[in-house]
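Attaching the record inline, Q. Sequence:
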Amino acid sequence: MNSSLLVFYFFFIAHTISPAQPLQALSADTLRTEVVLIGTIHDSHNSSPYYTVRELKHLLRHLRPDILLIEVPQDQMGVDGRVREQDRVGPELLTADEVARELHIPQIPFDHPRRNERNSDLLKRWNEIQPRIAQLNKDIKSKNSLDAQFIRLYALADAGLKSTQTRATSAIVNSDVCDALTSVYYSIYQDILVSIAESYPGYNDVATAVKWARSWWHERNTVMAENIANAAKAYSGRRLVVMTGSSHRYILRDLLAQRKGIAIKESWQLLNVNLLMDTL
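Structure, as predicted:
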């Protein structure tokens, strides 16, 4: 151990065990609940060569959470505090359960209570409207207008997001770049596409379907953020690791950043500190 690390070690120990540490000496983050948003890729963890189940498990262990928040509704949790066996459809839930039992920490559900019902409705509506969206795209491209540029940009953003499900590492999935790409994708898909559909005669059905999808997306994320904030209040001053589909990261981070008492942390910030302490 070199001298600088030795000094750091004794400084850390002294401030940790001191019974009379003044409140004003604590940093602002010390007084807040740490919330770490971990973007997952759902079933793709089983097939991705980079963001594997093993990598996800490694990430969770080294973050040393006090509580794990998982993307399921409350009614999917059993009385034993574990996700009901019949509802274990994703590798991240199995991984969360394994890590939670290993670390002896609770799992808290935070998804919208009507998620399954509304997502099924969304999938049905989306499949039904696809032929109409395809026809709208043809009409847009035939006019060679600015609208066509947005459609091309949407296709690029869509391809970029799909690549994160198959060829990206956990660091890429949980990065500002991926969040920005996701934000662009949803802005085009939800806002610009509605505006385009409303400006082309005969495509009100497309505009209505996309508006419904947008409304549900924002409702679901708002409820998720509220549930996370409630958990942060209940476990004040602790570290909450939130496991959520990567597409939710950008909007949940923005919603939670407005909340008092919450310090949003990125995994790389905490991993660097934890790995440093492991070397002491």
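Confidence is low (pLDDT under 50) at residues 1-28, 275-280. Residues 33-280 form one domain.

More tomorrow.
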